[in-house]
Structures are given as C-alpha cells and as structure tokens.
Specification:
The structure is a homodimer.
Chain A: E1 6-10, E2 12-17, H1 25-30, H2 33-36, E3 39-44, H3 56-69, E4 74-80, H4 87-96, E5 99-104, H5 124-133, E6 136-139, H6 156-170, E7 176-178, H7 184-192, E8 197-201, H8 210-214, H9 228-239, E9 245-247, H10 256-260, H11 275-289, H12 299-314, E10 322-331, E11 336-338, E12 341-343, E13 351-357
Parallel strand pairs in A: 2-3, 3-4, 4-5, 5-6, 6-7, 7-8, 8-9
Antiparallel strand pairs in A: 1-10, 10-13, 11-12
Helix pairs in contact in A: 4-5
Chain lengths: ~350, ~350
C-alpha cells in the first residue's frame, strides 16, 4: 500500500466549514464531529438562513452558541459580504479578534446565496478596509449559470477566474482565498499569484468526478466535481502546496429531506467527521491511478496541507496538540441522526482512517 | 407568441421509447399515454431486465403483450445486440416484419447495459447481415466513463463519434441511428454522413442543460444534457432536419423509489404523455432566447421531425390520421400511479400542449 498505516500530525485546521444555525439540530449533530476528525480549528461559514451573519455582534453570538456545543474547538468566524457591511464594521471585525474573513457569494450560485454579490464595485471601500486591516476575502469562485453567456456548473469556476484576477490587481495586498478549487485552471491561477492569494481544497473534490454526482445526490455540491484532469490537478496541489493550498472541506450538512425529499436536491457533501481520512483515501487512490507520485505524500506535505499553511495564512497560532491518523480505524456511519434531522456522510459504510488525539 | 396556438399534423412516430416489461406495472401505466401524446407508432427499446430482448420470438411475445395493453399503437420492435444474436436471427428478424432494428449499448453506459458491447469487431457477421437486410443499427452513442482516458458523462458522446465513423466506413450501406444526440458535435457528425445515417433527438434534451439535472433527479438521464451551445444545436437540428433528425424521446419511466429512494439515481426522463408538447415548449423557449429563428418552426419542419422522416427511414407507412396540437391544453400530472408504482413526468405541474385525434 502506497501510504503508511499511520501518521502523527499536528492537529488539523479546516478552513471552510458549514455548521448551520446554532443552537439548532444540525449544528448539534455536526459540531461535535470536528474534533472526531482530528481538527481543532475551523473557519466557519456565515451563510445561515433566514439571515446570514452580517455583523461582528452576530458573529460573536454565533461563536458563543457553537462554543456551547463544543468549547474545545477554536472557531474562526466570518461575515457574509453584504450591502450593510461598512468599512467601520471591517475595523470592528479586526479589533474583535474573532472575525477573520468576509465571504463573497455570487448571487444565486449556491446554498443561501440569495443575498450575494452581483458586482464587487459597490464594495470598494469595504475591500480597501479589508486590505488595510488584513481581513481575508473568501470567494465562492463561480459566476452564476447563464445560458446566454454559455455558463453552466461545469465552467462557472473557470469563468470566475478573470474576476479573481481583477480583484488581485485592484487590491494587491488583500488576502484572498479562492474557496473549494475544483479545476486545473483554478489551481494554475492560484499558483500564478503572490502569497496573499491562496486556495482551499475540499476532501470530496479529491475523489469525486462529474459522474459520481450525476447519479448520487449525496455527492452533489457547488462547485460541482469535474473531470479526471481537474481531480488530478487538485491532488497534486495538495502534495505540492508550498502554502498555496490548504484544507477547507466545505463540509455541508443537509437533512436527508433536502437530498431525497420532494423538490430539488440541496448542494453539499457532508465530510466533517472524517475530513482527513477522506483526503488520505483520495491520495492513495490517486497514487494507484498514477495521478500522484508515490513519494509525494510526505508527512511534511500532509502537515502543511492539513494544519500549518492554513493557520499561517489566517495568522492564528500553530497547533500544540497532535493527532494520530490510523488506517481502517472505523466504519463511516450510514447517517447521523438527532433532533429530528438525519445527515448522510460521504462514503457512508466504508472503512476510514481514524484520528486519535495524543 | 412566436408559435401558433395550434398545429394540425400527421400522427407522430416516436422512434425511441422505453415501455419496460410487459405485462408489468410500468408498461400498464405508460403504454396508454403514447396515443395521449398524438403518437401512433413507436420504436420499442429491448433493454428489459432481468433479460433483454435478444430473439425474434421474444420480440414477438413482447409486442403481443404491449398490444394487449394498447392495440391501437404500432409497435416497431428491436433486439439487444448481444453475443447470442446470429446472422440467421437477423434474417429471421427481417422476415418477421416486426423487428426493425438492433440496439447496441456500450457495456455499462446506461440502464440495463450490463450485457452490452465492448467492441463491435465480434459482431462483424451480424452487422453485415443487418446491412444486407436493411435492419437498422441503433446506437447508444457513448463510450463508458473512464478516468484513465479522461471520459466523463460530459464528453462520452463526443468520444464515441470516431466509433460511429468507423462503423459508417466499414458498413457503408448499414442504416444507423445515433440515438438521443446531445451535442453540437454529434449533430455535425450526423450531417456529414449519407442519408443512411441519422440521429434521433429527445424532447427533454431540447430544454435541459447540465444545471437542470444537477439538482433535479427527474432531469437526470444518459446521455446527460450538456451546454447551452449543444442545446441550441439540437433545436436547430429539429427545424432544419431535412430527414437527418427525427423524434426519439427516450422516454424512460422509473418508479419514484429509483429516483428518490435509497441508493443511486436511475437515469431517465419520462416524457411519453406530452412528447410533442415538450418539443413545442422547447422551440418556443429557443426562439425567445434567440437560439432558433422565429420563422424556422414551420408546419413542414414539425411534420417531418415528428412523423414523416422517422417513418421513411424505418420504411413504415406514413400516417393516415392527424392530430391537432393545442396550446395550454392540459396540466401535466404530478405523477402517474398504479399497480404499486409511481412515475413522475417531465415538467410536472406545468400547462402543456394537448393532442387531439382528428
């Protein structure tokens, strides 16, 4: 087997998680699984409904509610880029010490993006303030689908790259994360920018292709998984990151009725409890396919992608604890249930790597 | 509104339908809707399970079972290209007068394709016999997905086109139908061949894009719907067919549990009861988007695509009856239920054109 049977690594940081409204049944189910995966720090998405997180006070309140569920996790909070956010709120965010980024959703591109951005122009003063204060801009990097412009879920990320380039040029010191990169083109673009522009990569995009989500609603997410070439580029970005790419799972829990009930399928793959194990799975599969060089999966590469690069980028302390990842440690549950909701994890039923705190 | 409010056309022929096992609950539900749509002739797919239709005797038996459900429909039968089919069986098919084509499924590409074709080479004598006898070769024109070869559901049809070209070159008089064309490249390829090589087009691919099936299991089918450019090419193939393209809905009923139950999503869109109305919807939408010229949707083009071209290609008599298609004639049912099964039609709940026999 190309990977070792265990890895002793610094506690991981997952720089893109959806924990949903707290208090709330999904948050109660999902938040306790962060540490199960070997993760002690998470960057929490603000796209709650019916109201996204748009002020520092709301982020503070949300953080406290999450701490009430699991106080041992370090929650890095975010705001939702929205008309009501002012440069003063950005300065307040910096001063708060708890808000690290502002997430921009293209209007209509994904879950709860109905309050999202059409153009970045109206946010000029806010973006200037973020650049000055070192508050990160987190981008859902897709343009909305448009038949007139030939945009579908398959090229929506590639079509966003000129917008990213425009932001980088206009705000050269702004810290930017292109969230959940899914294409070789996005990986290439991120590599071409300075160290203030990075990408997160999910665990599920390291194994899924368009075929996998076509017939399986639990594999459907935005941005959608794409081609073998794209997947290969993502896998190689993980092991040759050099700080340009780090883990952001975009773990997106949905109640089973949003996946299998009447009506359209909610976008999102739930990966929180086994976030690191999925990455190891995918790297091992990548090696067997020949997508990834066998000697590329070093302890250093894993420690960087899982933990050190993300913390450094966000300016938070490096991990003090370690986790021991062990092959075939446990079987992924068919679903997590409680409080009237049921969430199906990625690769349910498979044997997965376990994480032990040491 | 760019289309007229009614069209008086020859009874339609749907040259690609799935009626499932007969007798059987889905066949009982679906077969009576053929004439509801204004269709009197159908080319019936042989991919039954657990056993496909692989002999003339089985096709005869299947035909009788369908006639027991609705004797007023003319069922053109097909065989499933399979190791057990011999040149003699092809000659028997021709002599029977009831079997018109042999359907080739690439192994693993779609519903019940587990007995399908890996290479056409072993079928040389069968294909020669088909060429001699005028038995049609019906192609599910996709190569199986393969990460190693970079094949996904998005390019599987395009990657099949060299195989089609090879068959056309090797069997220059063989009548070939590339079923359910979904790409501009397939349309272009068909246009480039002689009149013995044609394509069918479904009604749902005239309106769906990849985005539409990504979040809606009732829109998921094989081959999958693709880009706006591809859809535009299909719409224009309908109105400028000149006999190269005709209707084959690939109406594929699945019980709701195969779409929304546990496990993977079955591929197929159920369009039988409103097959012609969906095409008119799509043409009208295509005109409003500017994909289709307003004056292109003539009575002649519709009569050709719906009825005359397909009958001519298969060598069956032209229609003697007429149907009157009328705008906003009825509301599409949320589902059809009976015998313990439930099938959800395409665009459920929308007002659709109705078909009256005149």
């Amino acid at each position: 087997m190309p990977l070792k049977d265990s890895y002793l690594l610094p506690a991981a940081a997952d720089m893109h998680v959806h924990l949903r409204n707290a208090p709330g049944p999904i948050a109660s189910l999902v938040t306790p699984t962060i540490r199960t995966a070997g993760i002690d720090t998470v960057f929490v998405m603000p796209n709650l409904a019916p109201r996204p997180v748009i002020s520092v006070d709301e982020a503070q309140e949300y953080k406290r509610a999450l701490e009430a569920i699991d106080p041992k996790v370090n929650y890095l909070m975010s705001l939702y880029l929205h008309d009501s956010i002012t440069p003063d709120e950005i300065r307040k965010a910096k001063a708060s010490g708890i808000v690290f980024g502002v997430k921009a959703y293209p209007k209509g591109a994904t879950t709860n993006s109905q309050w999202g951005v059409v153009s970045f122009d109206p946010f000029h003063e806010v973006l200037k303030a973020m650049e000055e204060e070192g508050i990160v801009l987190n981008l859902h990097g897709e343009v909305p689908s448009s038949a007139a412009d030939g945009v579908t879920v398959m090229n929506a990320e590639e079509r966003f790259l000129p917008t990213l380039k425009g932001l980088v040029d206009k705000y050269p010191k702004l810290k930017i994360v292109l969230e959940h990169c899914t294409t070789a083109k996005a990986v290439e673009a991120i590599r071409g920018f300075g160290e203030n522009v990075v990408g997160t990569i999910t665990s599920h995009h390291l194994s899924l292709l368009v075929d996998d989500w076509s017939a399986n609603v639990h594999h459907y997410c935005k941005p959608s998984a794409k081609s073998p070439e794209d997947r290969s580029a993502l896998l190689n970005a993980v092991v040759t990151s050099n700080g340009k790419f780090f883990l952001g799972t975009d773990s997106a829990p949905h109640d089973i009725t949003s996946k299998k009930g009447k009506g359209n399928t909610a976008a999102g793959v739930f990966t929180q409890p086994h976030a690191l194990g999925y990455v190891l799975f995918a790297l091992e599969e990548g090696i067997s396919r020949g997508d990834v060089a066998e000697d590329a999966v070093t302890d250093e590469a894993l420690a960087g992608f899982f933990s050190t690069y993300g913390r450094k980028f966000y300016g938070v302390p490096q991990a003090t604890q370690k986790v021991l990842l062990k092959r075939d440690g446990e079987t992924i549950k068919e679903s997590l249930s409680g409080g009237g909701v049921e969430v199906v994890p990625f690769r349910a039923g498979e044997k997965v790597w376990s994480a032990e705190w040491v």
